[in-house]
Write a structure and sequence with these properties.
About 50% of the residues lie in helices and about 10% in strands. It is built from 49 helices and 22 strands. The chain starts with a helix and ends with a helix.
């Protein structure tokens, strides 16, 4: 078993044990049993947990959730206690308490020794195992609160359950998959914590719920690896120490970046140096900081004569240096345990420790219950009373928002305002910087000094009174409980509240964190409101929780403090994090920054991007920021590459992954993205015109109801473009879609009748807060039906741009760019599809989602007219080729015929297609060179772009034979001659391939055009020119089977559509004797009508991959539906439907959506099904006297078919009675949903969510 599987087993055992124990205490799942009905001996324990339950009800809102929380806390507490004992045993801090050994009678050494002192316990259940564990916990409880009897969740299950749990713990180290040394690791408690929450994390992920404050740790909990922690702690705390003691031995023993040569900071006593982790989790940063602080204390004693006793060091560190806050009480347990074990390892005998690591999971009363403590006897202004009430209210909800609560800022805001006023009066603040005014000489106002003194008094009294208030609150409840143990819960939580407040109002030297990563789009309502109220102004730190923690870490640290963090790197580039970057660049110095990249830092299941960095609170803009770029390397190579570059940096050398840049230069590119690796010459280009300056980049409409307002073009009519000029309702609509350059993805149309009047009216009804302004939803209408380019902004392959014809609208998902000061969309289409542009886009935003703001920042150089004309000509050739090829594919607007015909084979079409696509790729290569020339890139910058984007495959070497054959080709060049690229092709470098190299490439031909493996992708992967591929493919006998099958299915779909459109009612049976000739016969006739021979028709089975009759009955409808599934969130929309009574094929037919109606459904029942039913009954009569086995089998089949038909008729009758009335304009989804619900089609076209929406649609 894996460690996580052991953790699951342990958690389940402990939960079951406590659930059983609660039943004995009368604490049921939905209600409590009256205490009088229980034995008196359990009353004290029952009262204790009743008290805690009441507190949890105050947090969760109801009994059931409170009970669930209580069991959860008890389970984790026992899990923690036993796990920590295993760790302490492994560290030999005491003899084995839990680990059983054969030589001790399958008991632990401790249990055996205890029995020798307590002989009477041998006769107790399992030799008093429960009493023994209580005894050992009592001993630990003398110095560690978690084991003290007063600890609120200190409960043990019955002896049998407890023994089973202990055995499960002991099984962990015996498992070879885990390892016998598991308990000796410093990290094991953290790994256990992460595994412990896996089940809840998965449940939250599966729920797709928004992340509320109580789910934050589940949504983004990732345990920080030791090396990351070590790197960050040493380069923050270590650097701070060296700034005070530059000649310390620490400099030689540790590898610390930017270590000072002279003293840069006034020394202060080491026990006054404070570090905090405001999202400490299980305390990984704190655990390593303990080790490092210990070395600093030893250095102080040995080399600086500091008056510290080495025996005191563990206590000094825990009670003075280390501070941590977390929402999760259980994580804090682990952090305290880990620190306690660290301290015990350094000093075997240690007194009780007062940890400054606290959970904010406490509950306080309403302010009205305690306000007399603050107000009685104090002369407070109304504003001061309100301030104290506000601060109390924030503290009351600390369990929701933890260290993000800004009590200190609120409390001191008036004091800061008064102090600022005094500084202005004394001329210390130069108002000309802020207001453009000369400084005014004024005298200090005596009333200002009075205000400062008064605000200081209010602040000081608040903290004093706060302690009194929470202690009195706990005291009242202690008295109410008549001294019952339940009151210890409130006492403990009172301590937590006071410690929490102390931590929030302390100034720190270092803040470290691996904070939660939750995007604002995933915030629950309460979390969203809190973050926006507190972290949106004046700088926007509300876009992700990790950004919020950047600001909080900054606030926690004092002047010249250090911030060391690890989290996703999205803030480095994305427009929505612009304020985070500006704050960081303006107010801190980036001391050292590692852009790690995707995967490879955390455990394999944590699929996140990562960056780690150290900031100093300084605004020295000319000082070099140091970056290490690793995100382009394979994840398994990054660790070694990082420390190779780091060693070079420490030695004062250069390295290809190491970049130094004056921090001020990060401001040159708009919105200040962290693009640190480009040359100064490249950076200068961003100072000139941008896309925003010369073009109009805009989002289109968001229909608010895509199922209602969007259709695929084939849902409207078979040849949509034929009557498009007369269209008044459905208009072409660019909606993004998969990666596709130059041309395509125009599959969708939108209901924009009367300028979208129906849609706009719905927007007004649904969003009254817009006050009738539909521009927020139906955006940029003035650009509809204009020539431009549109793009797909999401995808792992990057952003792709396509020509937008002047007869279309566009979607928010298909944002578009239109001419403004620069007016040639054909040229700027080339620019946006170039390698240079792709590279810059990736620099500005390396995520899979490109935003319009990213494109606006692109530098845009207007070309000379000569280059502009040359590029425009190449783009027009590409567009013509792409349009021509689109005419062969059934989902494209330009479709007019299948490439499968009597005179041509699929192989011939593939050769033709490859030749034309090679022309496209060669033109792209030339365009890329033109763009490089326009932007005047240095050779170094050009090489940098190509190293990232790859060289243009159209410019790769060719064999002389392939080149000559390509230039001599006549069929593909009839319409698309090679005149403009012939010279380029002739100048291509020549390379002769070995037989092995060619064989390796040709071995992939079978998968060509399969699963995103088009010609371009194939050539990129094999680093081969498309001319070579065209030539070798043409010479080979290979036909890509999957591609051939897909085109054969499209050919068949087009033929069946034609047959159904020619049919009077658009209904053709698949089964005989249903009133008409079956579809299979009509298909054979149509083959002959189109000029196919009998042999060609017979061979079509092999093209399809199965007999045509079997394909029609079992596969065609599903494959067509899947084939037309072109957008993830839009439904599949087959234009041919397969209606079926069921697997016995009582009745089966195909229908065409363009003729389908309520009348046709009635005709289906009254004509086709009646014919089929009558023929089956007649056949049944014919067989009545035949007793042969074959006849009996046929009779049985007919019986099942008739029964199936009867049920099918009933379903039709139900549909008609329910008012089923399909209208073509309503679309496939709405019209097919009732049929799918009644299981009248053999394949589920709609997913569960879509089906529900269509069935409940009110349109």
């Amino acid at each position: 078993m894996k460690l996580s599987e052991h953790v699951d087993r342990l958690r389940n055992l402990i939960e079951a044990a406590f659930d059983k124990q609660f039943a004995r205490l009368g604490i049921g799942k939905s209600k409590q049993l009256d205490i009088e009905k229980l034995p008196e001996e359990v009353w004290p324990k029952r009262k204790r947990y009743e008290s805690i339950l009441q507190n949890h009800i105050g947090e969760t809102g109801d009994y059931e959730h409170a009970r669930e929380k209580l069991i959860d806390e008890l389970t984790f507490t026992l899990f923690n206690r036993l796990a920590a004992v295993k760790v302490m045993e492994a560290a030999a801090l005491f003899p084995p308490v839990l680990t059983k050994q054969p030589e001790h009678g399958d008991r632990s050494f401790g249990h055996k020794a205890w029995l020798e002192r307590n002989e009477h316990m041998r006769s107790e259940e399992l030799e008093g195992i429960r009493e023994y564990i209580i005894h050992e916990f009592d001993l630990l409880g003398e110095t560690l609160p978690l084991y003290n009897r007063s600890y609120p969740y200190a409960l043990l299950p019955d002896p049998i359950s407890l023994n089973e749990i202990i055995d499960a713990f002991n099984a962990v180290e015996k498992d070879s998959q885990v390892g016998s040394d598991i308990w000796q690791s410093d990290d094991v408690l953290g790994w256990l914590y992460e595994s412990y929450n896996n089940r809840k994390k998965q449940a939250h992920k599966d729920s797709k719920d928004k992340t509320e404050y109580n789910k934050v740790s589940l949504q983004s909990q990732v345990y920080t690896p030791r090396w990351v922690v070590q790197f960050l702690v040493e380069n923050s705390l270590g650097k701070l120490y060296l700034e005070m003691y530059p000649d310390s031995e620490i400099k030689r023993r540790y590898k610390i970046a930017n270590a000072p040569q002279t003293q840069e900071r006034k020394p202060k006593p080491l026990h006054e140096v404070k570090a905090i982790d405001p999202a400490c989790g299980s305390g990984n940063f704190l655990l390593y900081a303990f080790d490092f602080f210990y070395e600093l204390y030893v250095d102080q004693i040995d080399n600086y004569g500091a008056d510290y006793n080495e025996n005191e060091i563990p206590g000094l560190i825990i009670e003075n240096n280390l501070h941590g806050i977390d929402l999760d009480d259980r994580a804090v347990q682990l952090a305290q345990l880990g620190l306690y074990i660290k301290a015990r390892k350094k000093r075997r005998t240690i007194g009780e420790l007062h940890f400054k690591v606290v959970s904010s999971d406490f509950f306080l009363p309403d302010y009205d219950e305690v306000k007399h403590i603050f107000e009685d006897g104090n002369s407070l202004e109304i504003n001061q009373k309100k301030l104290i009430a506000d601060v109390w209210e924030d503290l009351k909800f600390a369990y929701k928002f933890g260290s993000l609560i800004r009590l200190d800022e609120k409390l001191y805001s008036r004091l800061h305002a008064a102090t600022r006023k005094r500084e202005c009066e004394q001329g210390k603040l130069f108002t000309n910087k802020e207001l453009g005014l000369d400084p005014e000489v004024v005298q200090t106002n005596v009333f200002t000094e009075h205000d400062i003194a008064q605000e200081k008094t209010v602040a000081e009294k608040f903290f004093k009174n706060l302690k009194i208030a929470v202690e009195q609150y706990a005291q009242v409840h202690r008295q109410a409980q008549d001294g019952a143990q339940g009151s210890t819960f409130l006492t403990s939580k009172t301590r937590d509240a006071i410690t929490f407040l102390e931590l929030l109002t302390t100034e720190y030297d270092v803040a470290t964190a691996n904070p939660p990563y939750t995007d604002s789009a995933d915030f629950g309502p309460e979390l969203k409101e809190f973050i926006e109220d507190n972290y949106k102004k004046p700088y926007k730190f509300h876009t992700n929780l990790y950004a919020t923690f950047i600001k909080r870490c900054y606030d926690f640290t004092g002047k010249a403090g250090f911030i060391a963090m690890v989290h996703p790197p999205t803030f480095m580039y994305i427009k929505t994090f612009e304020d985070v970057r500006k704050f960081m660049i303006d107010k801190t110095h980036i001391n050292f920054f590692v852009e790690w990249g995707y995967l490879g830092m955390f455990n394999p299941s944590a699929r996140v991007d990562s960056a780690l960095y150290i900031l100093e609170k300084s605004n020295d803009q000319e000082k070099d920021a140091v970056f290490v770029k690793l995100n382009h390397l394979y994840e398994t190579k990054r660790y070694d590459a990082l420390f190779e570059a780091y060693e070079k940096f420490l030695a004062g050398s250069t390295h290809e992954l190491l970049y130094r840049i004056p921090q001020s230069k990060l401001k040159i590119i708009k919105s200040w993205p962290f693009i640190y690796w480009i040359s100064d010459e490249f950076r200068e280009k961003f100072k000139k015109n941008s896309v925003k300056d010369l073009l109009k980049n805009c989002q289109g409409m968001s229909t608010t109801n895509n199922l209602k307002y969007l259709r695929f073009w084939w849902e409207i009519r078979p040849n949509f473009l034929e009557k498009y000029e007369e269209e008044s309702k459905w208009f072409l609509h660019a909606k993004g879609g998969p990666y596709c350059k130059w041309h395509g993805n125009m599959w969708v149309v939108v209901n924009y009748e009367n300028y979208g009047q129906e849609m706009k009216e719905e927007v007004k009804r649904r969003y009254p807060y817009l006050k009738g302004n539909t521009d927020y939803v139906v955006k940029n209408e003035s650009f509809y039906f204009k020539e431009g380019i549109t793009y797909s902004a999401s995808g792992s392959k990057g952003t792709s741009f396509r020509y937008l014809q002047p007869n279309a609208t566009f979607n928010v998902g298909g944002s578009s760019i239109f001419p403004a000061k620069y007016s040639n969309p054909i040229f700027y289409l080339a620019y946006f599809n170039s390698k240079l542009c792709s590279y810059i886009i990736d620099c500005l935003n390396p995520t899979v989602n490109t935003n319009p703001g990213d494109l606006d920042r692109l530098p845009f150089v207007v070309p000379s007219s000569i280059i502009e004309m040359a590029v425009e000509k190449r783009v027009k050739t590409i567009l013509s080729i792409k349009t021509n090829l689109s005419s062969s594919f059934i989902s494209e607007l330009e479709y007019n015929k299948s490439p499968y015909n009597p005179q041509s084979t699929f192989k011939g079409f593939f050769n033709y297609e490859n030749h034309l696509l090679a022309q496209v790729l060669i033109n792209e290569a030339i365009i890329n060179e033109n763009i490089f020339e326009i932007y005047d890139l240095t050779e170094r910058d050009r090489a940098m772009v190509l190293a990232k984007e790859g060289v243009s495959i159209g410019g790769l070497p060719v064999t002389s034979e392939a080149r000559d054959a390509y230039l001599a080709e006549t069929e593909a060049t009839k319409e698309f001659p090679l005149d403009t690229i012939r010279e380029f092709i002739e100048a291509l470098p020549v390379k002769e391939f070995t037989a092995e190299e060619r064989e390796a490439i040709e071995s992939g031909f079978g998968s060509l055009y399969q699963s995103n493996n088009d010609l371009e992708e194939f050539c990129i992967r094999n680093k081969v020119n498309p001319i070579n591929v065209w030539y070798w493919f043409k010479q080979s006998n290979v036909i890509p089977q999957q591609r051939m099958h897909t085109l054969a299915m499209e050919f068949l779909a087009d033929m069946i559509r034609e047959i159904l459109m020619e049919d009077e009612d658009g209904i053709i049976p698949l089964v005989p004797n249903a009133g008409e000739k079956v579809l299979l016969d009509r298909i054979e006739e149509k083959f002959r009508e189109k000029g196919f021979s009998s042999a060609q028709y017979s061979s079509f089975d092999s093209v399809l991959g199965r007999p045509i009759h079997e394909y029609l009955n079992k596969y065609f409808f599903a494959e067509l539906s899947d084939h037309l599934n072109l957008f993830m969130y839009l439904p599949k929309t087959p234009f041919i439907w397969h209606l079926s009574s069921g697997p016995e094929q009582g009745f089966d037919c195909y229908i065409i959506i363009y003729k389908w109606s309520r009348d046709k459904l009635m005709r289906l029942r009254s004509v086709y099904i009646e014919h089929r039913e009558r023929s089956l009954v007649n056949r049944q009569s014919d067989l009545s006297g035949n007793q042969s086995a074959d006849a009996q089998n046929e009779k049985d089949r007919i019986f099942r078919q008739l029964k199936e038909i009867e049920a099918f008729k009933t379903r039709i009758d139900e549909l008609l009675a329910e008012g089923y009335n399909p209208i073509l304009d309503d679309g496939v989804g709405k019209n097919i949903a009732p049929l799918q619900k009644k299981k009248m089609i053999p394949y589920e076209v709609l997913n569960e969510g879509q089906l529900k929406k269509y069935l409940n649609a009110d349109w």
